[in-house]
Amino acid sequence: MTTAVLFGVGAMGGRLLRVLEADYPSIEIVAAIDTDAAKIGRTLADVTGYQRFGGVKIVGDLVTALADLPKRPDVLVHMTESKPHLIKEQLLAALNTGLNVVSAAESMFYPGLRYGEFAEALDSAARANGVSITGTGINPGFSYDVLPLVLARGTSAVTRLTIRRCIDVTGTGPGDIEHVGYGLTPEEFNRRIADGRVEGHMGAPESLTRIADALNLEIDEITEAWDLETADFEVDSGDPTLGVLPPGRVIGITQRARALHQGSEVISTSLAMYYQPEKFNLVEEDRIEIEGAMPVMMSIKPAMQSLFGAANIMANTIVPLAAAEPGLVSPLDLPTGGTVRGVARYAVDPSRQAKPGYLPVSRKV
User: Fold this and answer.
1) Which residue ranges traverse the bilayer (predicted)?
2) Domain count, the chain
3) What is the CATH classification number for the domain harbouring 81?
4) What DSSP character marks residue 113?
């Protein structure tokens, strides 16, 4: 059994509990943390409605969470904020307590690219305490990087990749709302893009550089652009803090990123993030096209869900991370198959006769 502490009982944390309630019998949540005073002292069942770990009480800090546990848990599942300066001390505290950490923060997927000092501090703390830390989710962590690289295993001499993703973000939590820019006026959105307060999807440059690394593609610059969408009708954000957005507010963003070499496009991504995209004649889809010795094209309709998909990726990372070598770990280096969900294995059943076209099997604990 792998034991875990849940840090962040918001939109993502609730979906992780949904995942674990339906699957993953080898993972157990033994403590929960949230900084929201309205949640502290309540149980996970009270806040989320999920029952498997429903009796666990939410506390306000890591020290309190660990105080009454009979032994140190294996992993802290971190689902609070995305920006390095907001999460650095949370992550270091967990590492210095001797916990492995898997974070949903986009900045944790490949922090060494843009946040070198942050990455070095985490790597040093993890190694000093003999634990591992990584960041993953649906994107980055799957749709923009792991999945394209799995598909690219089936071809060679890759020259170009195109990734298109359109998703419904209804119900996303305050952390994402703040850095993506939903609910703003167009004028305020553009001001915040210009001064860096709004970044949209965080992690496209990291995904593009990791793909280029893995496939030996030469790039020398990455560009990003943001197109916004407003509506002339009210749109429900699905989040209680943002509520129903009046006409004229940002309810959709399409973020385009391009990796170039000497001015020519090598990798391109497009991510359309909308509340209720069907109202704008958009189709939810993940689409990957790889140009190489054998062209590869894959489409997933509807697209992998943003929050629920990320929660599933996180659940699949918990056990492999606990077994990883100490230090800052890339999710690309963890087993593609993720966490083994069962506690038994199948084998040939010797009590029944095998014959051509028929193989009896049974589960062995």
Assistant:
1) none
2) 2
3) 3.40.50.720
4) T
